Amino acid sequence: MNIIDFNHSHPLQAYWQLAGAAVQAEALTLALELDLFSALEQPLDVPTLAARLQLAPDNTSHWLELLWSMALLQRIDGPHGSRYGLSEISRRYWLPGPNGCVDAWHFRVKALRQSGASLRQRVVGEPAMAPAKPAGSGQDWAAAAASHIAQEQRAISVPAVLALLQILPGVQRAERVLDLGGGPGLVAQALVRQYPGLHATVFDWPPTAAVAGQLAADAGLQERIAMLGGDLSQDTFGEGYDVIWCSSVLHFVPDCLDLLRRVHDALRPGGLFISAHAERSGQPGMNVRVMPYYLSMLMAGRFVPRAGELAGLLVQAGFASVELGGECDFPMAPLTVWLARKGEQ
Fold it and tell me: Closest Cα to residue 83, out of 46, 118, 117, 29?
């Protein structure tokens, strides 16, 4: 028997897959809403699972096959049929625990659906609002910091920050670090745990700083983490810091250059500012990771820098050296890391 090895691809495949991704997103959302992953901590066959969750067995089987194809489940085939259990990624991120990201997923899906649904009216010129840090008291932002932002910091940001700082010479000897726009402050918590001689400050809206303070107290770190509440667009945030970390915050200030100058002033001579923000690339293959998440911000006039634009602003702000630190390949969009050092004098 001759075996013909016939392979054919079509340039439209990627665009049809966009439509299919909507079904995949719905399948995961349904799994989280039904608490499927908790039910499958121990593998089950389809009839048992369907009875437990009060689902239709035949269609449940097809749904589980889709989730298995997405690497969310393991399938264990046997003489009496298949059982389904958790993949490693589901066990780590979709169950309650330190890395659980269920609230973060629901928030991102809702925000992106709203952005897509409003795209037509934005393009034809009707008024539109971008996601932003709430004005005034920032109570809504504080609630977000306690839920989905905390999940994303714990599971995504903290490992990236620790890995980055381990390869930066001199950072391990830092004594004072500022987590600028730090939300729940879990990055600051991770840093003071990693470096025993370090003291951290978290700056954010006053209600958000209060959330960070409570979380630090719950962790027994209140003596090493200070909180500063204020308005990032106009307030100062102390001085004499060895390191200032700022991630996905500059998009929300009306005058980025003004903020960067205040960051420069807050550093001690020789101090280091680490910026991690999404940038618009000149390469379409890279930009496709950024634009879906930041399109609504751009359409409302928010700051999403082009490649290299932020580096130019850092030079204007007075930093003596500006160096590209690479990329943090986050699940949402890759963040470009810039390392800006203040002069010694």
Answer: 46
